[in-house]
């Protein structure tokens, strides 16, 4: 008799946590405080991941890495590896960054998390470019573009275009680099 109530619950919007709200505010210090406080209360690893991301946004890489390492043994290990990839890339260790990005990509592929996979593909492209594997960098950037376009994720799409432009510029393909950079700027300035 009440069978119709169950499916309606499946489509109910999930409330954003205080950590998620703070993370979207763009004020990284506030997000760090809010996410760490929320994690102390809830023990939810998503809050710890939010704090790690906020540390990245604030370029506090050591703190971001410390929190990411705490996530490696849990369900958000893919996100932890992407954070560690970024930290290693900024530290100049492209090979380790690439390994972390690849683990993140595989984890999110297995989980079916397309949005996370698109971000991982950008990380893979950046790390491959750093170690001079331009073919892999272009392939990963193209995958990030495919996924982000499908998901309507303009920020990820912009990052992928910029990595693609960097690789093409390095290869001396200036026309393609200019086209990729121009496409990225156009995408970034196009209203949703």
Features:
single chain; 192 residues; mainly alpha; disordered N terminus
Molecular structure report:
This protein is an all-alpha fold. It contains eleven helices and no strands. The longest helix is centred in the middle third of the chain and has 18 residues, at 94-111.
Structural class: mainly alpha
For the largest beta-sheet, the strand count, sense and barrel status come to: none
The helix/strand series, from N terminus to C terminus, equals HHHHHHHHHHH
Quickly count the helices.
11
Unreliable runs: 1-13
Straight-line distance between termini: 41 Å
The count of DSSP E runs of length 2 or more, i.e. the number of strands, is 0
Query: What level of helicity do the residues show?
Result: over 70%
Q: Give the overall form.
A: globular
Strand content: under 5%
Arithmetic mean of pLDDT = 87
Task: Provide a short characterization of the protein structure.
The chain has 192 residues and is mostly helical. The protein has eleven helices and no strands.
Topology:
Elements: H1 5-10, H2 18-24, H3 28-42, H4 45-57, H5 61-71, H6 77-90, H7 94-111, H8 114-130, H9 134-151, H10 154-170, H11 174-189
Helix pairs in contact: 2-3, 3-4, 4-5, 4-6, 5-6, 6-7, 6-8, 7-8, 8-9, 8-10, 9-10, 10-11
């Amino acid at each position: 008799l009440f069978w119709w109530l169950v499916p309606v619950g499946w489509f109910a919007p999930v409330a954003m946590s205080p950590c998620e709200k703070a993370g979207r505010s763009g004020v990284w210090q506030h997000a760090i405080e809010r996410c760490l406080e929320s994690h102390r209360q809830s023990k939810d690893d998503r809050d710890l991941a939010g704090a790690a991301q906020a540390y990245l946004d604030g370029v506090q890489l050591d703190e971001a890495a410390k929190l990411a390492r705490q996530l490696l043994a849990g369900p958000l290990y893919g996100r932890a590896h992407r954070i560690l990839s970024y930290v290693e890339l900024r530290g100049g260790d492209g090979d380790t960054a690439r390994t972390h990005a690849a683990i993140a990509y595989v984890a999110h592929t297995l989980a079916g998390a397309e949005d996370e996979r698109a971000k991982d593909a950008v990380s893979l492209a950046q790390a491959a470019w750093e170690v001079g594997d331009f073919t892999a960098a272009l392939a990963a950037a193209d995958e990030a573009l495919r996924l982000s376009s499908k998901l309507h994720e303009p920020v990820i799409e912009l990052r992928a275009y910029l990595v693609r432009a960097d690789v093409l510029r390095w290869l001396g393909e200036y026309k393609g680099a200019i086209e990729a950079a121009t496409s990225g700027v156009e995408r970034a300035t196009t209203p949703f």
